[in-house]
Write a structure and sequence with these properties.
CATH topology of the largest domain in chain A: DNA Polymerase III, Chain A, domain 2
Oligomer: heterodimer
Shape of chain A: elongated
Number of helices of chain B: 15
Radius of gyration of chain A: 25 Å
CATH class of the largest domain in chain A: Alpha Beta
CATH class of the largest domain in chain B: Alpha Beta
Number of domains of chain A: 3
Order of helices and strands of chain B: EHEEHHEHEEHEHEHHHHHEHEEHEEHH
Number of strands of chain A: 29
CATH superfamily of the largest domain in chain B: Reverse transcriptase/Diguanylate cyclase domain
Radius of gyration of chain B: 24 Å
CATH architecture of the largest domain in chain B: 2-Layer Sandwich
Number of helices of chain A: 6
Largest interface: A-B, 29 and 20 residues
CATH topology of the largest domain in chain B: Alpha-Beta Plaits
Shape of chain B: globular
Distance between the termini of chain A: 69 Å
Number of domains of chain B: 5
Largest sheet of chain B: 5 strands, mixed
Chain lengths: 380, 415
């Protein structure tokens, strides 16, 4: 195998596939990057067997030559050294040559590396998904769906299914839901597709996979193809192939746990509330659960306070647009509230409470697509 | 009176009740006075060992932790009684109340000993007078003997109280150390157990005086930081304060029990876990604390002991939660060999009023059943101030705790 490639393109591809590579894998060869040269270009592969990523560098794109002097072949290089070498090479291009002893020679300007490689035949074959169970989304919309939900997945393995994001398709609505059982984030989008065959409900994508995917795909209006099988999901763009295992098990039914009536409704400016909670939480960091207290007052005032006896106490007054319904005093985690408010782009939010011991709902005003739910904290 | 007190430095008492349980029994029943008396666990069971004994019994060679049959052999006329913890608890509480009348700086160490810092008590008399009055008061009002050590720090006070028993008052000043302290065998030193004594003997340290003169570097190599602490104490240096709250700094609450016979029988094991969990739960509630870590101890028939623990996000307090978690943990780690002893402990405790509990989406509906009550309570609290409500005390557990958990008894002497 031999080729000369634009170094910055190679670096980008390496960064993509590295997202799937872990040093703790059961199959040792998976600690390496597979490189394949074909007449169309160069393909890099990384995998930890949960996530597999392929990144393709086409030989030629929009009339610009990316890869030259291709002699086809393949090799697996050690991911521990290869990325740093490529990043630090002196020239804009790099030449990579292998011999039949699986020796890799890396040439750029005056530098010459010889690296021990492994036979690519040893590298596990990635499953090829044969399915018509596919639909398309715009890159930026998918990123939004991920960003607005994935932060709420559970980070502990006590209920493994909660470490994933639940993806559902119902009545031409695509719904992403994540919860760690203390808060829940949900985002719906309308999805009209010509594909009558499209059929899945209740699949659970590992939160880690989505977080990595979000880092790799560009924030643009190009489309990404999403294919679902029984135990895997594939995200595919022109030059990227991102395959993830799905989580086993049934995602708990959450919709019936979401209150459908409100006893106290607050309408207020998103940013002002966010900043007030952020300040109040400065003193709450010491206490468990990072608790702040919210209290409705007369004249549409909200009082947010926190008291940590060893540190001190803080009171924040927020002037809201309206407060309707019963008086309320409730305690909750400032962190969950900040997480929820941060992903809301709209100027104003509506918060609906149904009592101090029940979950409350945060939505952007006039936008039913986003729903954030937080369970309060009980103080003794 | 100030002339009896040091210009710089402290005056510390260590009050040590003399064969406390036996003395309390004798106070209840004067017929027992002057007779060899021992308090022991259930004689028919394996844990039938001597908990404490009167001086008359000790004179015959009866010792604490000795099996009952052995004690009977040494002293056939020995009177054996089961422990009567309610009595001891009451007596202890009275004693600490008397100490608290002298100074607020009282540090209970166990049910029958405590430290007092009387540095600022010169208006009440010289240290010796205060000690004599306290000793006399405990004897006259409770009919209980004690020994008191008077010294410039806690360690020396502790050593001093040990020097004359029963009914001794011993003053140990720094200038007395070469004659009174240093000739003692190293094993006599408070803080030096059997293992430590062995290690020190290997360094040719046989008396407390040897420890004073030993090489610090070598000591630290063998005993770590504790080596330095011990040497300092031997030199008469101990700056630890008399801390009235030290007794409240408990980090865990646990119960353990030795089985009648070694067993692998689930019909024995499971009920024992149930019982231990209940006891731990009762004690947690009594102390108004909760914890997130649960530890299970398993001792096998070959005395090999393992402990395994699990930490979780919600707080443990209820018997059922403790039981199911403990039993799970046990099943996961039990080797299947016969078991001699089981223990259940809840660790990393925090006071209940300091914590807040994050509600859970999948279980909050369970919590809301008391919602109205809590709502009313909150309204009244904000109207009339904190503490108008106290959860009614849990039913006092009259079962008799084992000796290692005596510290619970000391909670209420200041009430």
């Amino acid at each position: 195998m031999r080729f000369v490639v634009q170094r910055d393109l190679l670096i980008e591809s390496i960064q993509h596939v590295m997202k799937a590579i872990s040093s703790r894998v059961t199959i040792p060869i998976l600690t390496g990057i597979k490189i394949e040269a074909s007449k169309d270009g160069i393909k890099l592969t990384g995998s930890d067997s949960d996530i597999s990523i392929e990144s393709f560098i086409p030989k030629e794109e929009d009339g610009i030559i990316n890869v030259e002097e291709i002699e086809t072949g393949s090799i697996v290089v050690q991911a521990k050294y290869f990325p740093d070498i490529i990043r630090k090479l002196p020239l804009k291009t790099v030449e990579i040559v292998t011999d039949d002893q699986f020796q890799v020679t890396i040439l750029s300007g005056g530098s010459e590396f010889h690296l021990n490689g492994q036979d690519a035949v040893e590298y596990p074959q990635l499953p090829v998904l044969h399915t018509d169970n596919s639909f398309e989304l715009k890159n930026d919309l998918l990123k939004e769906l991920i960003r607005q939900t994935v932060f709420a997945v559970s980070t502990v393995e006590t209920r493994p299914i909660l470490t994933g994001v639940n993806m559902r398709l119902e009545n031409d609505q695509l719904d992403f839901v994540a919860t760690d059982s203390h808060r829940l984030a949900s985002r719906k989008i309308p999805l009209s597709t010509e594909n009558d065959q499209l059929d899945f409900d209740n699949i659970v994508i590992p939160g880690k996979s989505l977080a990595e995917l979000n880092k790799i795909i560009d924030d643009n209006e190009e489309t990404i193809m999403i294919s679902v099988t029984e135990n895997q999901i594939l995200f595919q763009t022109k030059n990227l192939y991102f395959l993830s295992r799905l989580l086993d098990g049934n995602y708990p039914e959450t919709s019936r746990l979401i209150p459908d009536q409100s006893k106290t409704t607050v309408l207020t400016k998103t940013k002002e509330l966010l900043q007030a909670i952020d300040r109040a939480s400065l003193l709450a960091k010491e206490n468990r659960n990072n608790v702040v207290k919210l209290q409705t007052k007369a004249n549409n005032q909200l009082e947010i306070s926190s008291n940590t006896p060893e540190v001190g106490q803080v009171t924040e007054e927020v002037t809201t647009d309206t407060i309707e319904g019963e008086e309320l005093k409730i305690s909750f985690s400032a962190k969950y509230m900040i997480d929820a408010l941060k992903i809301i782009q709209e100027d104003r939010v509506k918060i609906e409470f149904t009592g101090a011991m029940r979950p409350f709902i945060i939505r952007p005003m006039d936008n039913e697509q986003i729903l954030q739910l937080i369970l309060p904290v009980r103080t003794y | 009176m100030t002339r009896w007190y040091p210009k710089n430095g402290r005056v510390i008492f260590h009050v040590d009740m003399n064969s406390f349980y036996a003395s309390v029994e004798a106070a209840y029943n004067p017929d027992l006075k002057g007779k060899p008396l021992a308090i022991a666990g259930n004689p028919e069971e394996r844990r039938g060992i001597i908990v404490t004994s009167s001086y008359e019994a000790r004179a015959k060679g009866v010792k604490t932790t000795m099996p009952l049959w052995q004690a009977k052999k040494l002293c056939p006329e020995l009177i054996v009684m089961r422990p009567n913890f309610e009595r001891y608890r009451k007596a202890s509480s009275e004693i600490f109340k008397m100490m608290a009348e002298i100074t607020p700086y009282v540090q209970p160490v166990s049910i029958d000993e405590g430290y007092l810092d009387i540095t600022d008590c010169h208006e009440q008399g010289s240290p010796l007078e205060i000690a004599e009055q306290l000793q006399a008061k405990i004897l006259n009002e409770l009919d209980l003997p004690c020994s008191i050590g008077i010294a410039p720090n806690k360690f020396l006070a502790k050593m001093a109280s040990d020097m004359k028993k029963p009914m001794g008052i011993t003053v140990l000043r720094k200038r007395d150390l070469p004659q009174k302290l240093w000739p003692l065998a190293i094993g006599e030193m408070y803080g030096v157990g059997e293992k430590t004594a062995e290690k020190l003997n290997k360094l040719d340290i046989y008396t407390i005086g040897d420890l004073v003169g030993s090489d610090l570097f070598q000591l630290k190599r063998v005993l770590g930081i504790n080596g330095e602490r011990l040497q300092n104490r031997a030199k008469g240096i101990d700056s630890s304060p008399v801390d009235p709250d030290a007794i409240y700094d408990f980090k865990s609450i646990g119960n353990s029990e030795t089985l009648r016979e070694d067993t692998t029988d689930d019909n024995v094991i499971k009920p024992l876990f149930r019982k231990l969990s209940r006891k731990v739960s009762v004690r947690l509630k009594r102390k108004k604390v909760v914890g997130q870590t649960l530890q299970v101890m398993i001792r096998y028939d070959d005395r090999k002991t393992i402990t395994r623990s699990i930490t979780q996000s919600n707080f443990l307090e209820e018997e059922d939660e403790i039981f199911s978690l403990a039993y799970d943990l046990f099943e996961k780690h039990w080797s299947g060999d016969p078991i001699r002893l089981l223990g259940v402990t809840v660790q990393s405790l925090v006071e209940k009023k300091e914590i807040s509990e994050q509600l859970d989406l999948f279980s909050y509906q369970k919590e809301t059943k008391n919602e109205k009550l809590i709502d009313v309570m909150n309204k009244l609290t904000s109207k009339y101030g904190k503490n108008i409500f106290q959860k009614s005390e849990v039913q006092e557990d009259r079962s008799q705790p084992r000796t290692s958990f005596q510290k619970d008894f000391l909670d209420d002497y200041r009430k």
